Amino acid sequence: MLNWIEISAANLRHNFRVFAEVIGKARLAPVLKSNAYGHGFAESYEILSAEKPDWIAVNYVEEGARLRRLGFAGRIMVVGPFVPDEMATATMEKLEIFLGHEEGLAAWLAAKEKPLLHIEFDTGMSRQGFHPEDAENIAAKLEIHKGHVRGVCMHFANVEDVTEHDYARIQLQRFELAKKAFVSRSFEFIAHSASSASTLILDDSRLDLSRIGISLYGFWPSQATRISYKQLQGRLVELKPVLSWRTKITSINRVAQGQYIGYGCTFKARHEMTIAVIPVGYFEGYPRIASGSQAYVLIHGQRCPIVGRICMNMMMIDVTDIKSQVRVEDLVTMIGQDQSECITSGDVATWSETIHYELLARLNPTIERRIIDR
Prior knowledge:
Layout: E1 3-8, H1 9-23, E2 28-30, H2 33-37, H3 41-49, E3 55-58, H4 61-69, E4 75-78, H5 87-92, E5 95-99, H6 102-110, E6 116-120, H7 135-142, E7 149-153, H8 166-183, E8 190-194, H9 196-201, E9 209-212, H10 223-233, E10 243-248, E11 251-255, E12 260-261, E13 267-268, E14 273-278, E15 296-299, E16 302-307, E17 315-318, E18 331-338, E19 341-343, H11 345-351, H12 356-361, E20 368-372
Parallel strand pairs: 1-20, 2-9, 3-4, 4-5, 5-6, 6-7, 7-8, 8-9
Antiparallel strand pairs: 1-10, 10-18, 11-14, 12-13, 14-17, 15-16, 16-17, 18-19
């Protein structure tokens, strides 16, 4: 392969253990949705299976079924949407689905095969979930099915983007109202609200379970989360990035002064240049918008700017100033460490005017994921 992603097993295990120590392994639900945040679903599960997690969270019923086929026998939460046709599969595979709207509840009550439920409440996100004011009515409808209700949950709208968390605390207060409706009718359930950011910086949000996504893979959810954590703890917990992205030079071209490089003639050589071509573009997941920014890759441990427009499957790299000779098949790093230099997913996201979540999730799933540091 000319283009591959390296997944550090050692770093993924490290991050899992960091959160297991913080909240307890039995309360940790690693999130493998969206191709494990671009890291590779099967590869990430293979690594995590050695840690024997009690829970795993996914977004779709099909992801949960795939996890069963990979051999996971623990509890699986489907945190994303579902349609009634999927309930038979969810029941057969013993998946626990999030339920948060009247149409879904009506379909669930009418279904012959009823999967286990986590009742989701919208406490301020305005995405999925019943309103807390409706909790009494929902609990009443489900009272004869108490054994099927395994959890009551919510999702924070504004934790990682800010250093003040008044809105999150209002959400928790609203969630308490919803929980009371189920407690008063003697439901036995776990309550959960926390994702990576809230687990790190809002102790009150941890409750019975934490759904750890982006930080499982070694990333702070945001700079604001990082700052908040340091203010609270006086130090930073060590999160180790799991993913590196590599390729090889496929050709080298000499470009004369005044010659244009790439589509649209957006870049004009101001002097004679040496250009390396690499087989990575926006199909592979490197954002086209990074064209013309400060974006660079690493070759021989040196920063080499991207010049011209990023193509569908290629981009052009300025290697004119590299001190050592550059050859076809030399290693190129888009994300990761090369000698003393490092490019983070956050760097590429900044150059692309987006966030690292989006960048990682859009890495083409057909790119080979290679497990290293086993």
